Backbone:
């Protein structure tokens, strides 16, 4: 995309979470004049993206999600490298694969999980096949867990990034690009359409956009997730690690400076109250079975947030056009896969804004509904 394509555009973005910030930066980099509105502040304290592990794991997630999301994850991995390389502030990014572990009593579940991933890898040649590890191979790959586990599964090429560093780096970029940020401003995107100030209004409010989405058949809900952040200098895991367990499967994502993000419960509720005792006990018990060093870890945070989830658990874009009003584009439903698929969503929306059609959306299977102007994107009118 050329900078000239957006040099005369005036765009309003409502919601300064992950997608809102990424779109604001990308559009400003290409010459658009961007106003960004958010009901919270620049620290993204209330954004779902702040309470996340930011794992980039399309093969691991293929066990529980649709092929379209997996394709978006594959597309996004190299894009993250390009996006981060253009930022002025450093962001921790790692692509050393994912480790899957299980206790002996859960071997049957692990066999089914492994077979499912192998099937997905064979069906999609862009996914690297999982590698079965015996104890010796596990010792070489992740020695910190070899005393408790006799075998494992390694998923090459998968990665992670530091979500909070990224949100802060995007904030720095917004300042450098002179994006006009309206903090602590609760704005209805519909009201911005009538001001004759903007060519397009983008709604990236996550769960905050429930009323807008619930006017259609693709209703939006919040799915509660609970996450721990631990400081564990005695633990030296090198890569994101997942534990197969029938009651509380967990992930452990090692960040810089001996910080580990552990999660996540998944509850059909939009309750944002503090973490429950049961969830805390289950997460802490499970993480201790992976590495005994977590016994002396310090609990930095016990956090909750609601992930924006559409009826089919898949991301979607809605386009609304009315004569005499700005175009409105709603972007939502990233669910538990926000960081894994965000660059793919970004690329699709940028294509739509530039040309009215998105070949990338058609290729990846992103659901886009809207007006005839956008019919090149497999649109339902």
Residues:
């Amino acid at each position: 995309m050329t900078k000239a394509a957006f040099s005369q555009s005036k765009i309003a973005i409502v919601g300064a979470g992950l997608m809102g910030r990424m779109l604001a930066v990308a559009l400003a980099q290409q010459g658009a004049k961007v106003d960004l509105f958010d009901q919270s502040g620049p620290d993204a304290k209330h954004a779902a993206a702040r309470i996340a592990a930011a794992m980039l794991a399309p093969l691991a997630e293929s066990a529980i999600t649709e092929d379209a999301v997996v394709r978006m994850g594959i597309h996004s991995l190299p894009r993250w490298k390009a996006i981060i390389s253009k930022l002025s502030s450093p962001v921790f990014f790692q692509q050393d694969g994912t480790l899957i572990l299980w206790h002996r009593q859960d071997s049957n579940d692990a066999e089914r999980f492994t077979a499912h991933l192998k099937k997905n890898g064979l069906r999609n040649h862009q996914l690297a096949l999982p590698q079965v590890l015996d104890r010796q191979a596990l010792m070489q790959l992740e020695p910190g867990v070899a005393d408790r586990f006799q075998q494992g599964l390694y998923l090459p090429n998968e990665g992670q990034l530091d979500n909070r560093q990224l949100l802060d780096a995007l904030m720095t970029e917004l300042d450098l690009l002179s994006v006009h940020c309206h903090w602590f401003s609760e704005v209805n995107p519909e009201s911005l359409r009538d001001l004759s100030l903007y060519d397009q209004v983008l709604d990236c409010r996550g769960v905050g956009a429930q009323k807008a989405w619930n006017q259609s058949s693709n209703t939006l809900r919040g799915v509660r997730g609970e996450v721990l952040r631990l400081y564990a200098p005695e633990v030296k895991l090198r890569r994101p690690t997942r534990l197969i367990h029938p009651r509380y499967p967990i992930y452990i994502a090692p960040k810089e400076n001996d910080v580990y993000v552990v999660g996540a419960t998944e509850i059909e509720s939009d309750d944002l109250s503090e973490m429950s005792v049961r969830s805390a006990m289950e997460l802490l018990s499970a993480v201790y079975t992976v590495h005994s060093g977590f016994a002396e870890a310090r609990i930095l945070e016990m956090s909750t947030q609601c992930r924006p989830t559409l009826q089919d658990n898949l991301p979607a874009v809605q386009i609304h056009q009315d004569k005499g009003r700005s175009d409105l584009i709603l972007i939502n439903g990233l669910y538990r896969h926000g960081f894994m698929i965000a660059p793919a969503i970004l690329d699709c929306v940028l294509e739509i804004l530039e040309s009215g059609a998105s070949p990338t959306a058609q290729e990846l299977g992103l659901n886009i509904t809207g007006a005839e102007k956008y019919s090149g994107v497999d649109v339902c009118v």
Q: What stands out?
A: The radius of gyration is 21 Å. The CA atoms of residues 148 and 289 lie 8 Å apart. Residues 3-51+163-219+312-377 form a domain with the FAD/NAD(P)-binding domain fold (CATH 3.50.50.60). Confidence is low (pLDDT under 50) at residues 373-381.
